[in-house]
Amino acid sequence: MFKAKLIDDPAFYRMRKKVLLLGLPTFALIGFLSGQFSLPLPYFAGILVLIGFLTAWRIRTHKRASSMVRNRQIEITPDTIRLLSGHGKILETIPVTDVTRVTVKETWAMPEERIQDLIRELKGKPLENYLIVQQGQEERRFDILLDSFYMIEQLKKVIDDWQDRGLILETVS
Q1: What average pLDDT score do residues 1-9 get?
Q2: In sequence order, which residues have a C-beta less than 8 Å from that of residue 101 and are 6 or more positions away?
Q3: pLDDT tens per residue across span 100-151
Q4: In the prediction, which pLDDT does 37 show?
Q5: Backbone angles phi and psi of 100, in degrees to 5
Q6: DSSP string, 82-104
Q7: Which letter does DSSP use for residue 145 in this model?
Q8: What's the start-to-end Cα distance of the chain, in Å?
Q9: Which 3-state string (H, E, C) describes the chain?
Q10: pLDDT digits (tens, 9 = 90+) for 54-94
Q11: What whole-number distance in Å separates Cα of residue 82 and Cα of residue 77?
């Protein structure tokens, strides 16, 4: 069984980029400050205030981004796809037998895991983990927040099971 939080708002990816961008000047200032031993007190205090301001802004932005993934969860078994509320109440159940096609990512990864991922995210091409479920003519996209390798392995097991059962799977890169 696979369980994960669903990303409710596509703006989450922009917020995650903002969090990264706000962290860069903070770390640069901390690096500058740690290399300066004879900095006059007013400059030292000013840099500390600026670091505090940037850190508070980054925390606030991170909280707003986190609020975009708290509302719903997805639970996937070989037989069903369940959408749950943030409190665990079942909102919807989709039997896999009613699904005509599933589009999945070719590779699953955790965001910001490698330096290349960070650079790609800063360029405006965020790592998106999603699956698209088609029931008849209706397509639904579920953006998933992956936060552990265990979750990725569980999802791969479910997808492999679907493939063994003959469900039409389409992979995208």
Answers
A1: 83
A2: 134, 167, 168, 169, 170
A3: 888 888 778 777 677 777 777 777 787 788 888 888 888 888 888 888 888 8
A4: 67
A5: -95, -30
A6: EEEETTS-EEEEEEGGG--EEEE
A7: E
A8: 24
A9: CEEEEECCCCHHHHHHHHHHHHHHHHHHHHHHHHHCCCCCHHHHHHHHHHHHHHHHHHHHHHHHHHHHHCCEEEEECCCEEEEEECCCCEEEEEEHHHCCEEEEECCCCCCCCCHHHHHHHHCCCCCCCEEEEEECCEEEEEEEECCCHHHHHHHHHHHHHHHHHCCCEEEEC
A10: 888 888 877 777 776 767 888 888 888 888 887 778 888 88
A11: 8
- Length of the chain in residues, anyone? 173
Structure tokens at 119: 């650079």
Q: What are phi and psi of 146, to 5 degrees?
A: -95, 130
Q: Is 150 helix (H, G, I), strand (E, B) or coil?
A: helix
- In this structure, which amino acid lies at residue 84? L
Task: Tell me the backbone φ, ψ of residue 122, rounded to 5 degrees.
Answer: -65, -30
In the block, tokens 């609020």 appear at: 67
130 near 141, Cβ under 8 Å? yes
| Residue given tokens 């917020």 in the structure block | 15
Cα 122 to Cα 108: distance, rounded to the nearest angstrom: 19
Q: Between β-strands 90-95 and 72-76, what pairing exists: parallel, antiparallel or unpaired?
A: unpaired
